[in-house]
Amino acid sequence: MSLQIGNHNRRSAGLAAVLVALAGLPGILWGVQELKFKPGWNMFSPQQDVQVGRENAAQVDKELPLLQDATVERYVNELGRRLSAYTPNNREEYVWQFKVVNSPDINAFALPGGFIYVNRATIEAAQDEAQLAGVMAHEEGHVVMRHGTHQATDMMITKGILSMGGGLLGGQGGLSGAALQSLVGIGVNSVFLHNSRGAESQADQVGTYVLYQAGYDPHAMVQFFEIIEQKYPQRTAQFLSDHPNPENRVKKVDEEIPRLGPAKQWKTDSPEFEAVKKRVLAMPPPPKARPQASASKTRASG
């Protein structure tokens, strides 16, 4: 009996020592997720995120000119899904489907449930794979933080669509079909695509975290934002309008990175990215936006 107690005490002491050591690491994963990556209050379930996202994605696919190129689409999906494996609060329900919009405007946006669209010009403007990965990781941040349906929840409450007395609320805190249908089929110009500066800042945090965990230079995301603003002011007017710039964005990201852990041998580029970028640049110019669609159909927030 005394031997068993002694072994138990030694194991407990060893476990305690390990926990103390882990607590001192700046980039411990559960600490980062638990303290910072918490979605806001939401009347939708993650399953409903997917349902609403899927039905709106079907509408978006009709409204926007998609780049029909299997090689480019395969690359973007492989990169996006690889990044999604590192997202906090990820769920098995999320679809993680990525499509490229054949547009000359630099932009990207996400619908609830993991439906992400990246404009062709974004690939063309990215200087390396890390910068493109940063844009996509930022969009994935909007998905896992559930910003789309959180924003929809706020809108519905403001407009009095939700009744706390039970009217449109379904059982167990879910939404009934009537409230859910009000967010289905509203297409590109939707409440899901208008995020606040707070949501943008949180997506920056998630994107930085994902880049770090995936082995990419975590500075790449804000580097891309800075580059396109300075180098492509005309082509980024919509981007800057739809992506409200959080205060001290670069400074906040720079402060965040050391908290994630020690510096690594960062990955910045890949032959696959360079081949896809060259392929896209060699394609015919994107179609001109229809006049009636230019203002409303291209709104996207990332």
Shape: globular
- Structural class label: mainly alpha
Uncertain stretches: 1-5, 12-35, 163-174, 291-301
Q: How confident is the prediction overall: mean pLDDT? A: 79
- Approximately how much helix is present in the residues? 40-55%
The tally of strands reads 3
| Proportion of strand residues | under 5%
Strand order, sheet with most strands:
1-3-2
Order of helices and strands: HHHHEEEHHHHHHHHHH
Looking at the chains present, what oligomeric state does this protein adopt? Answer: single chain
Q: Please give the largest β-sheet.
A: 3 strands, mixed
Question: What's the N-to-C terminus distance?
Answer: 62 Å
Describe this structure as you would to a colleague.
With 302 residues, this protein is mainly alpha-helical. The protein has one domain (26-289). The protein contains 14 helices and three strands. The protein has helices at 2-23, 29-36, 46-63, 70-84, 120-125, 129-144, 147-158, 177-181, 197-214, 220-231, 237-242, 249-260, 271-281, 291-294, and strands spanning 97-101, 108-111, 115-119. Strands 1-3-2 form a three-stranded mixed sheet. α6 (129-144) packs across α9 and α9 runs parallel beside α12 (249-260). Mean pLDDT is 79; it is low at 1-5, 12-35, 163-174 and 291-301.
